[in-house]
């Protein structure tokens, strides 16, 4: 079928090119509009933390999105009238803003804790209507309304500010990575092909695939939310995969042109390399589609973008590339820029394969040991979530956050919020007494800085006095009590804030959240507690991710095995391919821990270790790397099987397959390594970790595994490589026989 497709593309080549030109013109009009349609957020799921946030909004009218505006002066103190005037001028621009929920300052409803220890700094809460994603969308507009008066320093920080700057930094990193990788990819293609025409074609195909993908994503944004991070995955995969697939097709076409006419050479190229490309694309789609099972808009967007760009790349390579090859014919070798070998003798790769197969056990055992050793650090992995420290040094949200931590305390901006619901009324004596006991327990905890609630107004007030006082709250004239009821609630829901002495991501604060949840469950049968806050929210999100991740792994592994079973009609080869991929991914996971958790090479890579691996990175890496690494397995084994079907000689098939594909696989892998490594220049540690991890996985896969371990294991297994049940045995696929 693919042979006939290739010949048809040559026959109708000008119509095919015209159709793609028209498609590109349409995509060129739609693609730039996608930037204004993407959502700068992560997405929400049904967790305890989110349920608590929803209840706070419904019952107490508290907005989910709160910006923290930090105001400081080197000489004035917060009690000076001039300082108060400066705070008012800072916030004047947001007063009356349509999406403003409210403003709380030291001078208007704020507690004494709003003043720093030295008195030179304060902060204000600016709440915004709508959810987190809406807050992300309007953040830049709101930030533009907050000004710094003469002599004052002003920072805007908080969750929305941090993630908004993270998105902007990721966009800058994307542009930088493209600038870094583009000349390197050009140089690599020049070395591979040596001619200008063959060198430019893969890049042109990548441009087409990315443009079409961006247009498709724009159309999707009309019916669903899509994360802005789809740009990163689409660009990375679009450049890497399109170039790799086009490289493989052109390389095989040049090889076939030596003894065939143009149309037949294109047909054989599609029947052989095209088949490998098609199944490689399917395995990559399988890996990326695993992200669609994660119940987060962020992951699903990456999955959609990745699948879309792979499908676009396949369409380009299976239709446009053969049409262009039909037009170019021998001219694909025009305008030589470097003198390179024709790739036919592959003497080095044959010698490598034969050398490995002479001593397969002596090669396989050390290579497996090295890969397992590289993966060993992953046994001690600590997964965490990005916060202010993932931003580049000098980012406003990071500086503001660190200013508050220094001047106020590590946990000042991230209290543990305990939402207590009592359908019979939270001011009943029994409920008030239970709240009193609950708050006193944690007020005495050495990890706790302070507790705020309706029963912590004054340490001199006893349990019984609180019960008596709240028996008739309407009759109490005390402003402090009325203010507490206004903030913390007094109907059937009340709020307790517990401030940790430690940071939002610290183990101490995480342990405190678990202790609060355990104690909250024991409050009483008529009371329900829900715990939220930054630490609880991030922890709940991580638990949901890693509840779904094992099922994603199972889906990818099983589906990939079935796809390869259809391709190779061997029970053993797909299993070996899956195991090889697992080894390369495990080794790269270990490298992530060694580098980013333990801080090795931090000076070279320009980052400060946070002491953990960001929890989204292993999930994204698995789904991306599993498919990409499988590409090279398919490229190699497809050629090995092609030769084996003609010779029935396992050793010759392995040596011949590596001889014919070693150079092109190495070149294709080098291009993807260069594109991935460009992300290592990122200022955002999450993007940097992804780039380093993917680059290492592909490098290991294309060297130790494909060049050494695969030939060794295939030699050890011998004829067992090709075993399959009787019902699967039939003539080899393919429309035309091609020379081995």
Please write the CATH class name of the largest domain: Mainly Alpha
Strand content: 5-15%
Main β-sheet, in a few words?
4 strands, antiparallel
How many structural domains? 3
Number of helices, where a helix is a run of at least 4 consecutive DSSP H or I residues: 23
CATH superfamily of the largest domain: Multidrug efflux transporter AcrB transmembrane domain
N→C terminal distance: 19 Å
Low-confidence segments, ≥5 residues, pLDDT <50? 731-740
Plain-language structure description:
The structure is a single chain. Helix 9 packs antiparallel against helix 10 (297-328) and helix 14 (429-443) packs across helix 15 (463-469). The longest helix is centred in the N-terminal third of the chain and has 35 residues, at 159-193. The protein has helices spanning 2-11, 13-30, 48-60, 81-91, 132-143, 159-193, 196-220, 230-256, 262-289, 297-328, 347-358, 360-375, 396-407, 429-443, 463-469, 479-488, 507-521, 534-568, 572-597, 602-605, 616-647, 650-678, 685-717; strands spanning 65-72, 100-104, 121-128, 153-157, 383-384, 416-421, 448-452, 493-500, 528-532, 613-614. The chain has three domains: 2-40 and 164-388 and 539-728, Multidrug efflux transporter AcrB transmembrane fold (Up-down Bundle), CATH 1.20.1640; 52-163, Alpha-Beta Plaits (2-Layer Sandwich); 415-532, 2-Layer Sandwich (Alpha-Beta Plaits). With 740 residues, the chain is an alpha+beta fold. The strands form three sheets. Strands 2-3-1-4 form a four-stranded antiparallel sheet, sandwiched between helices. The chain has a four-stranded antiparallel sheet with strand order 7-8-6-9, with helices on both faces. A two-stranded parallel sheet has the order 5-10. It contains 23 helices and ten strands. Helices cover 62% and strands 7% of the residues.
